[in-house]
């Protein structure tokens, strides 16, 4: 660690702890952290938070950060999740070395035998139900297993037979011998190993003996040279067991487990269990549904890694589990996009405007800036013609007080073009629906011409009817209704779903330049929000755009 790093202000309790260890030479190896996901699901924004905490702290001290798959349960894990997790972490801009817990099967086994020889572990034949009974309660101590006094030789022999597959699944376990009267339930002779006869996705049928996470985790950290094992707050009560394992194995300079609060976001489902219920129940469009906070969903929605980093930098590190308003995440998505997105005109609910005094066959190319906030992005040429589309909501036949857009007899500016005045309203004779607006334009009011000193109170966007391209627009909002309460079981998701969370607009009209829209690019649809091409439903001759985020920033206003 260099002197400049030493002088940096400490911004959170974890960084302060690591800084103290570095200054006091607690470890004679570089700072090392890790992220240890189980490959049985997909990463979400909460995972990104944990990754960010571990990775950023390692970076601050010129240390290392590992991705380690906690894959010691063959019943749940799959290579598809491994590949998805690696892809998501690389999308976040991190390319860590990759390790697998399943590669340490032999060291786990030898460590367990070491504990048996020290009379710190024993093979137990109690059933799961009996073990629960013997464990006691929060107010009553547990009682010793009748198998706790087995000899070292008997335990070693039984453990060897467990490894060879001589016993059925769950018929025996290896338990730590600690203290059945401990006030910490995790220290009441916890299970270290169990028998599972199932094929593992990597090691196949090489092993039928698998370590519990609380036993494997500290050994994994030790083998990889981790100095600071930073994990979520629910593992705080497990820390004494983490330390016990390393102490009994007589590890020199053992890694430290320290905890921080989980990130929850209002209105978003961030539990892997509930996300699975939503996906497998068909309530959402797969793991990459843009309404989900999975990294795949955020990516498909059009959120960038840079926006996620801005958000995570702002929230810092929580001591306790904490909830953040979803509006805050949206704010940083806007902050990231506002100077990089091309601003284009898109009419989502079109009504036709015919400019009666404009030449019928004339097309005029008008120059419009690509981004009002970023001059360096230049401008583009947009075709203007006699027939246009404007938003239906930009016209009122009988205007309410304060309405300053188009109505009979009023004038507005068309963005980057001319003033137009509504002269006549055309309706469908059978339904009474307005089908066309007949207008006139003032040729002396062309944007940038400097000829007209007249002012109007409103500017509206438009698209040339002859040149516009049609597209389908997907408008996404919060998945669940306000104040929805998620319970441990029996959630009636169909009653909790926000009916406005997914709205399709099938006949939007966009500027002709959007015919060449690219995947991975972001566009600001003027007055509507930020959008990108949907990677699943956009096919040849059919463009589908997802709304990334609206323009309304409620978090910024609330903060101000």
UniProtKB/TrEMBL annotation:
GO MF term list: ligase activity
EC code: 6.1.1.18
Cross-referenced InterPro entries: Gln-tRNA-synth (IPR004514), Gln/Glu-tRNA_Ligase (IPR050132), Glu/Gln-tRNA-synth (IPR000924), Glu/Gln-tRNA-synth_Ib_cat-dom (IPR020058), Glu/Gln-tRNA-synth_Ib_codon-bd (IPR020059), Rbsml_bL25/Gln-tRNA_synth_N (IPR020056), Ribosomal_bL25/Gln-tRNA_synth (IPR011035), Rossmann-like_a/b/a_fold (IPR014729)
Glutamyl/glutaminyl-tRNA synthetase class Ib anti-codon binding domain: residues covered: 344-442
Domain Glutamyl/glutaminyl-tRNA synthetase class Ib catalytic as annotated: residue spans: 31-338
Occurrences of domain tRNA synthetases class I (E and Q) anti-codon binding (ranges): 459-534
Keywords assigned: Aminoacyl-tRNA synthetase, ATP-binding, Cytoplasm, Ligase, Nucleotide-binding, Protein biosynthesis
Matches recorded under NCBIfam families: glnS, PRK14703.1
Statement: the UniProt record of this protein carries the keyword Aminoacyl-tRNA synthetase: yes
Record-stated family: Belongs to the class-I aminoacyl-tRNA synthetase family.
Protein name: Glutamine--tRNA ligase
Source organism per UniProt: Paenibacillus dokdonensis
Annotated PANTHER family: GLUTAMATE--TRNA LIGASE, GLUTAMINE-TRNA LIGASE
């Amino acid at each position: 660690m260099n002197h400049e790093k030493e002088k940096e202000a400490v911004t959170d309790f974890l960084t302060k702890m690591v800084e103290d260890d570095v200054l006091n030479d607690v470890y004679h190896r570089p700072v090392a952290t890790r992220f240890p996901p189980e490959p049985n699901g997909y990463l979400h924004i909460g995972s990104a938070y944990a990754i960010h905490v571990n990775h950023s702290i390692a970076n601050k001290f010129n240390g290392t950060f590992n991705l380690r798959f906690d894959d010691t349960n063959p019943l749940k894990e799959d290579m598809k999740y491994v590949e998805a997790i690696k892809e998501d972490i690389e999308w976040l801009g991190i390319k860590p070395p990759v390790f697998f817990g399943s590669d340490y099967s032999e060291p786990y086994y030898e460590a367990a035998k070491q504990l048996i020889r020290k009379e710190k572990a024993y093979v137990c034949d109690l059933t799961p139900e009996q073990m629960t009974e013997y464990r006691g309660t929060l107010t009553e101590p547990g009682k010793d297993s009748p198998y706790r006094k087995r000899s070292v030789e008997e335990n070693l022999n039984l453990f060897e037979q467990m490894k060879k597959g001589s016993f059925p699944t769950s018929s025996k376990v290896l338990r730590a011998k600690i203290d059945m009267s401990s006030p910490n339930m995790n220290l009441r002779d916890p299970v270290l190993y169990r028998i599972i006869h199932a094929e593992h996705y990597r090691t196949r049928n090489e092993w039928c003996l698998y370590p519990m996470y609380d036993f494997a985790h500290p050994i994994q950290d030790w083998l990889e040279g981790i100095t600071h094992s930073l994990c979520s707050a629910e593992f705080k009560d497990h820390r004494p067991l983490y330390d016990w394992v390393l102490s009994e194995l007589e590890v020199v300079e053992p890694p430290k487990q320290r905890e921080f609060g989980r990130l929850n976001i209002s209105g978003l489902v961030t539990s892997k269990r509930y996300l699975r219920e939503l996906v497998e129940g068909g309530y959402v469009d797969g793991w990459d549904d843009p309404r989900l906070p999975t990294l795949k969903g955020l990516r498909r929605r059009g959120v960038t890694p840079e926006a996620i980093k801005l958000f995570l930098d702002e929230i810092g590190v929580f001591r306790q589990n904490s909830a953040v308003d979803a509006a805050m995440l949206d704010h940083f998505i806007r902050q990231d996009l506002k100077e990089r997105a091309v601003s284009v005109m898109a009419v989502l609910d079109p009504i036709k405007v015919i400019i009666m005094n404009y030449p019928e066959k004339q097309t005029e190319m008008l120059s419009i800036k690509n981004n009002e906030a970023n001059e360096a992005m230049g401008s583009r040429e947009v075709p203007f013609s006699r027939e246009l589309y404007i938003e239906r909501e930009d016209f009122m036949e009988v205007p309410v007080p304060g309405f300053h857009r188009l109505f009979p007899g009023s004038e507005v500016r068309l963005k980057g073009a001319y003033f137009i005045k509504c002269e006549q309203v055309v309706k469908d004779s059978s339904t009474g629906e307005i089908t066309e607006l007949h207008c006139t334009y003032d040729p002396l009011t062309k944007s940038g011409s400097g000829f007209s000193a007249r002012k109007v109170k409103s500017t509206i966007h438009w698209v040339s009817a002859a040149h516009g391209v049609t597209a389908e627009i997907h408008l996404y909002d919060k998945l669940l209704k306000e104040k929805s309460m998620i319970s441990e079981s029996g959630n009636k998701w169909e009653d909790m779903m926000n009916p406005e969370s997914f709205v399709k607009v099938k006949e939007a009209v966009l500027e002709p330049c959007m015919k060449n829209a690219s995947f991975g690019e972001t566009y600001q649809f003027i007055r509507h929000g930020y959008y990108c091409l949907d990677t699943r439903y956009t096919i040849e001759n059919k463009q589908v755009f997802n709304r990334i985020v609206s323009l309304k920033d409620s978090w910024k206003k609330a903060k101000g």
